[in-house]
Amino acid sequence: EDQVTQSPEALRLQEGESSSLNCSYTVSGLRGLFWYRQDPGKGPEFLFTLYSAGEEKEKERLKATLTKKESFLHITAPKPEDSATYLCASRGTASKLTFGTGTRLQVTL
Amino acid sequence: DVKVTQSSRYLVKRTGEKVFLECVQDMDHENMFWYRQDPGLGLRLIYFSYDVKMKEKGDIPEGYSVSREKKERFSLILESASTNQTSMYLCASSEEPYEQYFGPGTRLTVT
Fold first, then answer.
1. What pLDDT digit, counting tens, does each position of B38-93 carry?
2. pLDDT of A64
3. Which residue, B28, B92, B40, B86, is CA-closest to A100?
4. pLDDT < 50: residue spans in chain A
5. Which of A30, A37, A96, B25 is deepest in the core (most CB within 10 A)?
6. Residues of B with CB below 8 A from A32's CB?
7. Looking at residue B6, what is its pLDDT?
């Protein structure tokens, strides 16, 4: 059975304080590792897809990386508007995604 | 831009009522999905569809059914709503085998 575990559950950073979120996954035949951002009361917003170990993707202050067992979402010099819950999901041989429970990020001034 | 819309943002229903949640996507995607999201449990897949009139059970299909009569529209039906179905319901669509795009969600309360 596919499993995705995210850590930490919650993270509080000061503006400008860089950090990383972790996503550990167990899946047969990885066909994609996905990162989403979710604001309170809204649907998840797609950020990145990673397909193979060593791959990296960047968008503004966010960079996602992938190894054979984990993915990291690095946040460089975060701003308060980066506050959200970040979700990770894996896709194996089936079409469906397995989601982690998310990391709730708060960035304060 | 992909757009997925859901019929209601907030819904309040009574126990035993039949509830319809509708989802429409405008990108001609093959796949559509229904999830529920609960605190501490994350997103759980209820049903998905990879073609018109086709459906597959997800991880928690009990108490739900779905309908896909047109490619752009996927409906979730609660035949007899119960309080344990109070949740946030999220619809998503995707083009195989790429990322899923989500709608804004429907917060359903069953009293």
1. 998 989 999 999 999 899 999 999 999 999 999 999 999 999 999 999 999 999 99
2. 98
3. B40
4. none
5. B25
6. 97-99
7. 96
Half-sphere exposure of A42 (CA within 13 A, CB side): 13
Contact with chain A for residue B33, Cβ under 8 A: yes
CB A6 within 8 A of CB B61: no
CA distance B46 to B35: 5
Strand spans (E) along A10-76: 10-14, 19-26, 33-38, 45-50, 56-59, 62-66, 70-75
Q: DSSP letter at A29? A: S
Other residues' Cβ atoms within 10 Å of the Cβ of residue A11: 17
- Cα A105 to Cα A89: distance, rounded to the nearest angstrom: 17
